[in-house]
Amino acid sequence: MTAGYPVFRIHLWNFSMRRFYMIQILLLTHAELAEGFQSAVNLIIGEQPCFEVLGLKFGQGLEEYTGIVHKTAESIASVDGTLIFADIFGGTPGNTAGKLLLEKWPYGGFPFGCIAGVNLSLLMEALTMRESMDFAALKTHLMALFPETVVDLETALNLQPQ
């Protein structure tokens, strides 16, 4: 019985030394695309914690949408980081995220960034890998997956780490 004790102890030691992250994810899109992505994610990999979606509704004012995005980003800000995805670079949701980056970056000292050009594969990769990587590593990993179709808004806006 004592022969198994050190192995068990080492197992617990290794487990306790592993750092788990929970990077918040906010998806901004036109219309109901965000809800559609969330529905697909729920079907494929199950409901995800710390995952918010906001679609710009037809007829919704820019000020109203910007206010909702800012309030949501503030409410989910996390020490592990908040990663915002936008459907297209240059669209209203992406521009709203860019404005948020310009006004609030770095967000309360927490890691904060935005990737425009989201697709379902990229989103699911982010959701499934966010517990095993820190913010910078996750963002670098995601940008490498689809370098021709995604844009890092921090780079596009020439923001530099402080």
Automatic annotation (TrEMBL):
Keywords: Cytoplasm, Kinase, Phosphotransferase system, Sugar transport, Transferase, Transport. InterPro entries: Bacterial_PTS_sugar_comp (IPR051471), PTS_EIIA_man-typ (IPR004701), PTS_EIIA_man-typ_sf (IPR036662), PTS_IIA_man (IPR033887). GO terms for molecular function: kinase activity. GO terms for cellular component: cytoplasm; membrane. It comes from the Bacteria. Gene3D superfamilies: Phosphotransferase system, mannose-type IIA component (3.40.50.510). Residues 22-150 form the PTS EIIA type-4 domain. It is found in: Cytoplasm. GO terms for biological process: phosphoenolpyruvate-dependent sugar phosphotransferase system. This is Fructose-specific phosphotransferase enzyme IIA component.
